[in-house]
Specification:
With 151 residues, the chain is mainly alpha-helical. It is 74% helix and 0% strand. The protein is elongated, with a radius of gyration of 26 Å.
Length: 151
């Protein structure tokens, strides 16, 4: 509920500020949103859900596309380099990064990670009767602990 109440003034501010923006800046902001979303998705998969890298992917994706667009515009026949366009594009990615972080359930991810760690710890433990036996186990015994036979 608290997240929704803090989001409401931000949305109202954006609605009021929309009339003062050029159409080109709004398109750059939208492009930054889209490429920031793609960058966040890629970074989230690579980093296995790390919050920092997801946010960095959103901002980095939008900055990369913004720099590319402005580099093309600064060439022959282009409209020239515009820092405000670049800022609008990066702000689009920043907005996506904050939104993803606000609406991601981090508690569920922590529980899932803890359960996975517990399963890994149980999987790699030697059975009690095997560890009490003198000598080292064979590779067959380590590979398939359910098929262990003692002679």
């Amino acid at each position: 509920m608290c997240k929704k109440l803090t989001l409401l003034p931000v949305l109202l501010f954006c609605f009021l500020a929309h009339s003062q923006l050029e159409k080109d800046k709004a398109l750059h902001f939208l492009g930054g949103n889209l490429y920031g979303l793609a960058g966040a998705g890629i970074a989230k998969q690579i980093s296995k859900g790390n919050r920092f890298w997801t946010f960095a992917g959103a901002v980095g994706g939008s900055a990369l596309i913004g720099l590319g667009k402005e580099a093309i515009d600064s060439g022959k026949g282009g409209s020239g380099w515009d820092n405000e366009d670049l800022l609008a594009t990066v702000l689009g990615g920043l907005t996506v990064g904050v939104t993803i972080d606000l609406f991601t359930n981090h508690e569920r991810q922590k529980k899932r990670f803890a359960a996975k760690q517990k399963l890994n710890a149980q999987y790699y433990q030697l059975p009690k009767d095997l560890s009490q036996k003198k000598g080292l186990p064979t590779l067959t015994q380590l590979a398939s602990p359910n098929l262990i036979r003692y002679y």
